[in-house]
Structures are given as structure tokens and as C-alpha cells.
Amino acid sequence: MKKIVFLLMVLMIAGLHFSCENNDTPKPVLEPKQIDVDAQTRQLIDSDNHFGLELFRTISAGQDPSANTMISPVSVSLALAMTYNGAEGDTKSAMEETLQLTGLSRQEINASYQALIEALLTVDPKVTMEIANSIWYRQEFSVEQDFLDVNQEYYDAEVSALDFNSSEAPSIINYWVSDKTNGKITKIIEQIDPLTMMYLINAIYFNGKWKFQFDEDKTSRQPFYMADGSEIQTDMMQTEATLNYMRNDLFRAVEMPYGRGNYTMVCMLPNEELKVEDVVGEMNAESWNQWMQAMDSATVQVHLPRFKFEYEKKLNELLQAMGMEEAFDPDRADFSGINPDRDDLHISEVKHKTFIEVDEKGTEAAAVTSVTMGTTSADPGPPVVVKFDRPFVFAIREVTTGTIVFAGKLVEPEVYE
Questions:
Q1: What is the pTM of this model?
Q2: What distance in Å separates the CA atoms of residue 223 and residue 236, rounded to the nearest whole number?
Q3: Which of 152, 253, 273, 382 could form a disulfide with 268 if both were Cys (CB 3.0 to 4.6 A apart)?
Q4: How far apart are CA 372 and CA 350, in angstroms?
Q5: Per-residue pLDDT of the chain (417 residues; tens, 9 = 90+)
Q6: Domain ranges, residue 124
Q7: 240 and 91 both lie in a single domain
Q8: Cα gap 387→37, rounded to integer Å
Q9: At what angle are helices 73-84 and 89-98 packed, to 10 degrees?
Q10: Of 293, 309, 280, which Cα lies nearest the Cα of 407?
Q11: Is the domain of 193 the same as that of 53?
């Protein structure tokens, strides 16, 4: 009798095990999803990377070497692309050249941005990627309907006529910014100048969990060596995984994926005798592509500080130096596609704000760009150890399209109490 009971128990356990195996839900595929884009969208992405890296290089060159810096090339490009839809004549040509869009028609540019936005938003369910656009204009200011229609169609822009004279107007726009960045950027407008007729705003929010998360138990207080030779204590995270890695005469680089691997963070640590500025100075679209292609799989032990910072920059002078002088000149700017009756309509300000926080679980980042339109009247072997314990460069990109979403440099991590 005991033997029969024992056999029945064994059969029951085996049956339960078989049932569990058959009912297990399939594990999600954690490989990057290929984004197929047409030739025009590929050209647009290349143009955005050219423009974005040139902008980052120019900002960094004129920046205090001790300042943390981060921009979102995609955010700046989208805000200016919406503005570009109202440009005509020489102003239109100058914007095309500055944004590296020469050779693409206006319709091709808009359609390509629409395709890119859709791809970036839907490629990885494990990464939150949100892109929002809006146009706010003075309620008594006449705006061409075609201009509004094209930005609504291709950029899904929210359009609002607003009483700019009301004390509540800045709060309304800033609330939209805060909402679209999940509260990470709460203000883009301080007050509205009586000569301001329109704001064109892009907002981006990114939240990605590391594919290979850092173990919080391995985080410890360690020194971070500043560019001036001083030392601070910071929370240094640690992980070990099979990652993309490369080394050249300038830096060592590690690429750490989020979610299924479409979005990654590339961190570049300058070689001992070099500085962050030496790496940034060599960053352009051609060198960036070569560096990414040179990446190879390796077992890497990464030591990375937790960090969090905000960055803000007015881009007027930089964009003018890059070729957009005419768009800022009230005597020469031609934005008749927005309002044909105001020959003094021009870009009065381009403001860019970013936020990033990196911890053991992942990365949260946001960016807002506002364009203000004004008038005058095998065996892996031992791991490679890369310790980011001094200033370094970083970027967040989508790997299959090559789109650079954020680019920055960390000079001083926040010290957590």
C-alpha cells in the first residue's frame, strides 16, 4: 500500500512539473528590434547627428570646463523643424544649411520626422520614451492656417491661442512643459515680453531600466577625481556584464543597454593623459560612426557614479554662428509662412533645458527646447575594468537608427548625503 501511495505522489509531482513547464509564459526577447527606415529618414537622422554633435562640440568649447553639460539634439532639431515650416526665401535656406537638411524637400523633412518620432516612441516597451510638441501664440496674432496644419499633421503639435497679456499665461505653458517631462523640467518661461508673438516648444521624456542592473549592495563611497586635481567622495555603482567595449588613442568606451537593447548609454572615459575636452573636440558624425562600429563584445566590470544634474543654455549666439543669423535678424528674417503681414517676425530666443539622473536601476532624462518668435514693433576571459572616477563623456542613442537622443559630459557628480 505504501508503495502505491509513493508511486501516486511521484506521478502527481511529475504531472505538476510538466504542467508548469507547459504553462510558463515565453520569456521576452531582449534583443534590439530592427527599425527599418527609408532613405530620406536615414538622411534626416544623419543630418540630425551632424547638427547635434556640432552643437554639443560648440557648446562644450565655450563652456566652463568645470560645468556638467547635456543637450538633446533631437529636441533642438524638432523645435527648429516646426519653426522652419514658416520660413521662406533666404531664411529657409539658412535654416536648411544650419540643420544640415540641404537636399531634402520640406515635405520629405516633415514626413521623415514623423516616421522617426513614431519609431522612437514604440520600439521598446521596456523604455518610456515620450515626445511632445506644442505651439502657443498670442490670441490677437494672425497665424497662417497651413503653418498650423502641417505642424499638427506631422509633429502632432498641440496648438493654443493664448492671452499673452494675462499673468497666468506663463504658468499655463510651464504646466504643459512640466506635465510632458514628468515633472523633471518645470519651467521654460519666466515672463512674456510684449513683443513675443509665439512659442514653439518640444519636450522629451526618457526613462530606461538597465538591461543589466547595478547591484545596490555593491555601491560604495569612493573618490571621484575632478579636472582640477581635487577629489570628492561619491556613490560609485558597480556591475559586470557582457557589453560593447572599445579602446583607442582618445578614450575607453562602454555601451550599456536599456530594456531590450534598442536604447543604450555610451560612456567614454578619456585616457589618463587627456581631458574631456580632448574627446568632445573630436566628436563629429564621421568619428562617432567609426567609434560605434569599432565596438566589440567583452566582459566588462563597470564602475559608474550615480549622478544627477540639470542644464540650461540659450542657443541664440551658437545657432547664429552656425549659419542661422538671418532667422534672428528682424530686418532680414522671412517667416511669412507664419504671418505674411509681419515682415519683422523673427526668432528672438531659442532656450534649451535638460535633466538627467542615473542610478542602479536605470536612467531618467528630459529635455525641453523653446523657440520664441518675436517682433520689433568566445571565452570572455577576465573582465575589462573601466572605472569612471574622473570626468567623462556620455550619450544616449537608439542603436538601429543611430539616433543620438542625448549627449553630455559629467565633470562633477552630485554628492548624495
A1: 0.90
A2: 8
A3: 253
A4: 6
A5: 444 444 444 334 444 443 344 444 444 446 888 888 899 999 999 999 999 999 999 999 888 888 899 999 999 999 999 999 999 999 999 999 999 998 899 999 999 999 999 999 988 888 999 999 999 999 999 999 999 999 999 999 999 999 999 999 999 999 999 999 999 999 999 999 999 999 999 999 999 999 999 999 999 999 999 988 899 999 999 999 999 999 999 999 999 999 999 999 999 999 999 999 999 999 999 999 999 999 999 999 999 999 999 999 999 999 999 999 999 999 999 999 999 998 999 999 999 999 999 999 999 999 999 999 999 884 456 888 989 999 999 999 999 999 999 999 999 987 555
A6: 39-208+308-374
A7: no
A8: 36
A9: 170
A10: 280
A11: yes
User: Which residues, in sequence order, are CB contacts of 103 under 8 Å at separation 6+?
Assistant: 43
Closest CA to 375 of 331, 323, 410, 311: 331
Q: Are 261 and 211 in contact (CB under 8 A)?
A: yes
As given in the structure block, the three cell numbers for residue 391 are 570626468
DSSP 155-179: H--EEEEE-TTSTTHHHHHHHHHHH
Residues 153 and 116 placed together within one structural domain of the fold:
yes
At CA 263, angle to CA 62 and CA 157, rounded to 5? 75
φ, ψ at 47 (rounded to 5°)? -65, -45
Place of cell 513614431: 118
38: alpha, beta or left? (left if phi > 0; alpha if psi -120 to 50): beta
- Whether 34 is in a domain gets the answer no
**Whether residues 196 and 331 fall in one domain:** yes
